[in-house]
Amino acid sequence: MGSRNNHMSQQSRNTGASAPSSLHPSAALDKAISAQRSGNLSDAERAYTTILKGSRTHPIALHMLGLLHAQRGNFAGAEPLLKKAARVDSGNPDVLFNYANVLRALDKTDDALAWLAKVIALSPNFADAHLNRGAILMARHELHGAIAEFDRAIAIEPSSAAFANRGSAFHQLGQFDEAHDSYRRAIELAPSNPQNHFVLSEVLTQMGREDEAITALERTVALNKTFPFAFSKLVASRRMRADWRSFEVEQAAMDDAVDSHVPIDPFTFFHASSSPARQLTCAKTYVANVAPERGAAILRTPSPTSRLRVAYLSADFRRHATAHLMAGVIEEHDRERFEISAISYGPDDRSEMRDRLTAAFERFEDVSHFADEDVVKLIRQLDIEVLVDLGGFTAGARPKILAGRAAPIQVNYLGFPGTMGASYIDYVMADRIVIPEGEQQHYAEKVIYLPDTYQATDARRPLPQNVPARTEVGLADDAFVYCAFNRTAKITPVLFDVWMRLLAKTAGSVLWLLDGDPIATENLRREAVARGIAAERIVFAPNVPADEHLARHQLADLFLDTLPYNAHTGASDALWAGLPVLTCLGTAFAGRVAASLLNAVGLPELVTQSLDKYEELALRIARDSELRTALKSKLAAHRATWPLFDTTRMARHIEKAFNEMWRRHYAGEAPASFAV
């Protein structure tokens, strides 16, 4: 997912202040301070203002009135008051500390660091001054300097906040062992703080210690069931393992959490939800908590004298499903009319796909080590006119780049099957199957309807070669092979019931699944046995290179799709390999993708309207060899002639969409839904 940054700066001393012992506050001042501490800010403000009318440099009144403004979030109003207080009472480290914090809140980080250094010069054992210097340096990605400050704070006064921040800095450096140890110390010092358990779960996941990560998430939720993203991460972890013991309860709890505006990871929720309306609520809550609009102006750039400047933004320009789908379209873009750039914030895996994409784009900017605001600056410097986000809220996402309004037109496409719920995303590229016209109200974006299907494909991808023998992959030569090459997280108990009934009714059949977590494998076999199916009738396909994976599809007889989240790239792979895909039409975008693909390849008869019809048709195909042969022959013929795998056609349609978006923008028209 994405990405959001969970490594929050923590501090234990934001507003604490003490008056110099040499001053004896008047009764009016005592009353004002008492009112402020009890939350009666208006009375306190009037009292401080009265005191300052009589004594414009009264240090305590200046200090406390400045803190009052900061308490209200009015840091711009607090700054001149605290600046004056710091000048009048320059020997008071508390005053200087609070002034530095206001400067930090105003993003004047150089000044804040300098004033915190003055605090330390006055009071070398002021641990929170080191802690806040570290937090500023960490926010500026000066991680080694941040760690040094956290170490100084810990040497003075070991605190949960200091260890948690130290863990965060190591976490961001990819030094997971050090991060883990720091988070553990933070928990020892503050065992009831859910944030500490949550960040520990994240580093444990990255260390491959999934059991401990789940335990840490369970502890987070036990401490605070509404802790942002903890419950959805716990559900995702369990579903990746096919741990369905609390499936229905978790499903209802996720819906309730979304309805209550508890932050839930949208990508996890979209796997579980059939409600476009709830998906919009989920996305809006996520945006409000992780990447709210920054209110940056949307500048109308001059009409291009020659080519429209388009950039694709992604973490996945590497060996990844999104890259496999998009590579051909990038290569097919008309370079006489469009200048095509990549803004890549994901890892360079040095794969053939990475090399292919680097060559395909005219400009390939690796911004993986840039701060979000620096990426925004770069995109603006490049004068990008249309920015296409290929990731949405998937793993590694950085939506704050989009929240900064990096480009005048911003588009959600391909990687995230649903709304992003953000006012700063102008359009989503879709088709009339994945987003029926009557569902537009559930999308924050305006909808662009591409004519055939929304999904890009790569016609240059070689067709499967060197197909292995069935015995080489653990399949019997005479078995009927139901194939469901989807992530375990997409499999639900209701769907698994259908699959097991199909095995029971189809003599000599097996279900071929992707191998993943060994606990998931064990759980799925146990679930099969519980439904009366022998464990050995579930066959697991190990992870292999993409070309080998594509080739082995030809050993299967029928691809069974999932619901409420369909196969997307997986369905495209199966159809390209010549394997018919059977789907059930869902109610939300993610559950309608396979139907879109099947219509675009001329096989609408494989789209069913209910799980009963899905089961019925699967059984008919399994029992009718002539029907199977006819479906495979039809798919083989249509693959070369129908729109699904016509990459050039898709590139032209996307370009028409770009031109219409730009025409509307340049004419001063608001974004509006349209069809290409």
From TrEMBL:
TPR repeats lie at residues 160-193. Residues 304-461, 464-652 form the O-GlcNAc transferase C-terminal domain. Residues 1-25 are annotated as: Disordered. Pathway: Protein modification; protein glycosylation. SMART domains: TPR (SM00028). It is an enzyme of class 2 (transferase). Its EC number is 2.4.1.255. One of its GO terms (molecular function) is protein O-acetylglucosaminyltransferase activity. Residues 1-16 have a biased composition (Polar residues). Keywords: Glycosyltransferase, Repeat, TPR repeat, Transferase. One of its GO terms (biological process) is protein O-linked glycosylation. The keyword NADP does not apply. PANTHER family: PTHR44998, UDP-N-ACETYLGLUCOSAMINE--PEPTIDE N-ACETYLGLUCOSAMINYLTRANSFERASE 110 KDA SUBUNIT. Belongs to the glycosyltransferase 41 family. O-GlcNAc transferase subfamily. This is protein O-GlcNAc transferase.
